[in-house]
Specification:
By secondary structure, this protein is an alpha+beta fold. Helix content is about 15%, strand content about 35%. A five-stranded mixed beta barrel has the order 5-6-7-10-9. Helix 1 packs across helix 3. The longest helix is centred in the C-terminal third of the chain and has 17 residues. The termini are far apart.
Length: about 240
């Protein structure tokens, strides 16, 4: 695959809805406005890399910083909303098309605000440039229907649906494949740690960490940059 790279932090946002910080990537993949008639690649053909919003060293840290951790299965994937690669959401150019991933959750492992979580939630991930060329961010393969595993999630800012999420980081997905765990970004130190676990061990680690969060003995990690707040917390 072709490699795309640009320094700095990637922010995504609707042009009329403010900036949306995304944990994964920072890459420019084309300019101009997305054409609604464009044909989107069925498979990614480029890799993009960039600065992470969080640098987790342990599953416990990632759990504490996640706003929701579930075990579930991907039931559908389709082209989603437009987002901007620019820091300024009103800037012209740099539009990309997100992928809308629907996950049917089987279990809730971490829900610090005790929210009512529906049977299915939405995960947004980066997918295509304005020409329809597919790309993968920070080695996190596209979600596919049938993927089953653990998802560490944070609320997606800039959207009104409270059940729309993004991965907490490029380590935020651990699929269960043939009884073993497959981390989402195999090149990180945390991924190495995850691969040594069996699914039940990861499950128990998340549940224990969630209990520590509730007890106030474990707090979330400090981001490497400012995070925009979801609408209900930012006063929008």
């Amino acid at each position: 695959m072709e490699k795309l790279r640009r320094p700095g932090l990637r922010r995504l946002g609707l042009t009329a809805a403010g900036a949306v910080a995304v944990a994964a990537l920072v890459a420019a993949v084309g300019v101009g406005r997305a054409d609604p008639g464009v044909r989107y690649d069925a498979h990614p053909e480029a890799l993009a890399f960039g600065k992470e919003m969080y640098d987790f060293q342990t599953v416990e840290q990632m759990t504490a910083t996640s706003q929701l951790v579930i075990f579930g299965t991907v039931t559908s994937v389709q082209p989603g909303r437009l987002a901007s690669t620019d820091e300024d959401p009103a800037a012209v150019g740099g539009d990309i098309r997100l992928r809308t991933v629907t996950i049917s959750r089987s279990d809730i492992l971490h829900n610090p605000k005790n929210l009512i979580i529906p049977a299915s939630i939405t995960l947004e991930e980066e997918g295509w440039d304005e020409e329809g060329r597919g790309y993968v961010s920070n080695n996190v393969a596209w979600s596919e229907v049938g993927d089953t595993g653990y998802f560490f999630l944070r609320r997606a800012a800039g959207v009104s649906d409270p059940y729309t999420y993004q991965l907490a980081s490029s380590d935020g997905r651990a699929l269960v494949v043939d009884g073993a765990l497959r981390p989402s970004n195999v090149e990180t130190e945390l991924a190495t740690s995850i691969t040594t676990m069996v699914p039940s061990s990861l499950n128990n680690t998340v549940v224990a960490a969630s209990g520590q969060v509730a007890a106030g003995t474990l707090t979330e990690s400090i981001p490497t940059a400012d995070l925009p707040l979801p609408p209900e917390e930012s006063g929008e």
